[in-house]
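One chain shown below:
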Amino acid sequence: MSTTEPARKPRGRQFFANPGPTNIPDSVLLATAHQTVDFNDPNFIAVYEACVAGLKRVLKTQQEIFLYTGSGHAAWEASLVNLLSPGDRILILESGYFSLSWAAMAQDLGLAVQSVAADWRRGVDLAALREALAADKGHGIKAVCVVHNETATGMMIPLPEVRAALDATGHPALFLADTISSLGSLDFRMDEWGIDACVGGSQKGLMLPTGMSFTGVSAKGMAAHAASTLPKHYFNWTNMLKRPHRSFVGTIPVSLFYGLQESLRLIEQEEGLENVFARHTRLAKAVRAAVQHWSGNNGPQLFCLNPARYSDSVTAILMPEGYDADALRAVALQKFNLSLGGGLGPLGGKVFRIGHLGDLNEPMILGTLATVELAMKTAGVPHTPGGVQAAIEALA
């Protein structure tokens, strides 16, 4: 008989520092625990319409929104099949794992993909984007696709500069943006920035369970949709427009709308959207201050090397050579009940990620950083102690 003791689960509430899904406020959890209602009931339709109006305010748009039961990947597929036709060429700005994922999806759907390559640690050179657009004399590129905030690398791409490149070259391509890990955490202005389609999901800055996503679509995007011929049914915007809710082909996830109603109240009324952005910036600076302090003594360092592109919703942290990020994450989880994000794709085992988006505050960030430092000491990872104090100084 084995004498090995079973693993003991640490006591206390888990500190959850993944970059998505994120922590859900108690009031939102309670709101989603709503009895089943008929989604055609006038009382629910009032909630639904208020939620759509609130989403438009967060997106800063007056244009069309389509919603789906599905994660952010569903919204990306919906956008591609509704805007494009077989063989159309799209240009994707490389930013990390998720830009590669969207490229693979587009190829599977029968689209031609052209990429603007990038160093994942420094970010795409927008001069290279302008060159690619200027070289496309025949306007064969039908859409430019950008991940606003690359969750895998902790890097933000400045969307106004992408719009400026399109305008400077006079290129008519549609401008598509992924806001999944930026919306409700970083400023996003769909109409002002001339974005033709943006995708978002419920489980990050909106502080909801996973399972609902949406696409904002401009008038130019709707005109492209009228000419698109890629196969679609469940995601077909034309079919959705015929329904009373102007979204969803099939059953509507009513409980998520009660949660979204509460989430929008917290964002807009209890805190204020601009204050939400300021809080994310403040907490992100504290995380980066801690990591920069740890980097001494050959310690972990910020994966993103471009300060102008730092993400305010997630920080990716590169481990020292010869040390496994997943082993550190296991120590943090199994010994101290702290859940951290792992590296994605080629960054697996090399990077761990701290999500600082959604429902969080200074004590939660400081507790997370203290426990990361404790896990590093326990696992024998080289670092300069005192990262938490550096974070406190950044916050103070």
